[in-house]
Structures are given as structure tokens and as C-alpha cells.
Amino acid sequence: MGPWLLLVPLGCLALLLPPPGAAEFSPSLDSDFTFTLPAGRKECFYQPMRKEASLELEYQVLDGAGLDVDFHLLSPKGETLVFDERKSDGVHTVETEDGDYMFCFDNTFSTISEKVIFFELILDNMGEDGQDEEDWKKYVTGTDLLDMKLEDILESINSVKARLSKSVQIQTLLRAFEARDRNIQESNFDRVNFWSMVNLGVMVVVSAVQVYMLKSLFEDKRKSRT
């Protein structure tokens, strides 16, 4: 088993607990990571989560023979929540409780080929921006006259933020797909060049043999009389 790595994106999440009563915002924390998983190795990561939050994890195998890997997601109690066997990509979302969630990428089934793996974490309802509710109340005045409530503003902001986060996520995934397709194309390019050289060599050898055989047919093998 490979080393156990601690992954805590965007700072120490355990310290990002909101103050009491701050629950209107639904903050989302995104992070992504690309690493090389050697043949016959297993890499595991920990992600601290809070209760009633959401953990979304998406992974892709960008390079390596077969473009596949085993994936495990375990709860803080050690229960297996997700198990993907020999998959090239996957998307999983779980509702979390307090504790450290562990997810592992397993390449022990491969004895030769290493894998390049990309994964992205999206953490929802972690409470990072909840403390801003009181700040909003300071600046919103005359809501009765404008027929607008603070909750409407917060809902609109959450909607815009969610759409922007989704756009960033899609762009990140498109870059990952592009990297994987580029690796496949470069591998195919190398194969085409190799077999083209082999075919060229065979053609040269066959041509030389044919010229020799044709030349031998027209040689006068009769011995001259003296």
C-alpha cells in the first residue's frame, strides 16, 4: 500500500465553521489535483467534512495502459460507500457527517504501467461564508419600500454562485478530457510512426530480394568453351 496523504484543500476546513444562525448561504469549495500513480501502488487521501454537508468527487485516468484504476470511498466509520473496479472515470456525491472521509486510487493490479489521475473535489454547505449574513443586514435598508426581502437577495446570490461554480467545474473537466485525448493521440502517433518504419524496412528488403532474383534469371550460367 502506498503512502497515506492528507488532502485539505483551500486551507484548514475544520476551522471554517459558521457562527450560530448563519445558514442562508450555501458555500461551495472546489479543488482539483493531478498525480502519477506508479504500477503496483495504492494512494489514499483524507478529506475532513462536517455534518449535513455534501462531498462530490469526480476522477479521470488521463494516461496509462488501459486508462483504468480501482477507486474506493470510505466513511469516517470505515464503511465502504463507493467501489469502482477498473474504471477510467467516475462521479460520486455523498451526504456527509462529521469526520475524515478517505478515498483511494488502487493500481496494484498493474505490474508495468503507471497511471496519471486527475480528480476534483466539490464541498457544499461547509459554512465558509455564513458569517456574512449579518454584514448583509447592515447594508439592506428600506426593504419594505422596495418590496424586497433579504432572503430574496441571498437566494439570487446563491443561484449565481452555484452557476459560476458549475461553469468552473465544467471547464476543469473539459481540460481533463483534453489532456486525456492528447495523450491518446500522442500514443497513436508514436505507434503509427513505428509501424510505418517497419513497413518501409520490409518494403526495402522485399524490393532488394526481387531485384536479385530477377537479375539471377537473366544470368548466363553456361560455361564458355575454350
TrEMBL record:
It holds the Pfam family EMP24_GP25L. Keywords: Endoplasmic reticulum, Membrane, Signal, Transmembrane, Transmembrane helix. PROSITE patterns: GOLD. Its main location: endoplasmic reticulum. The chain crosses the membrane at residues 194-214. InterPro entries: Emp24-like, GOLD_dom, GOLD_dom_sf. PANTHER family: TRANSMEMBRANE EMP24 DOMAIN-CONTAINING PROTEIN. Belongs to the EMP24/GP25L family. This is TMED5 protein. It comes from Rhipidura dahli.
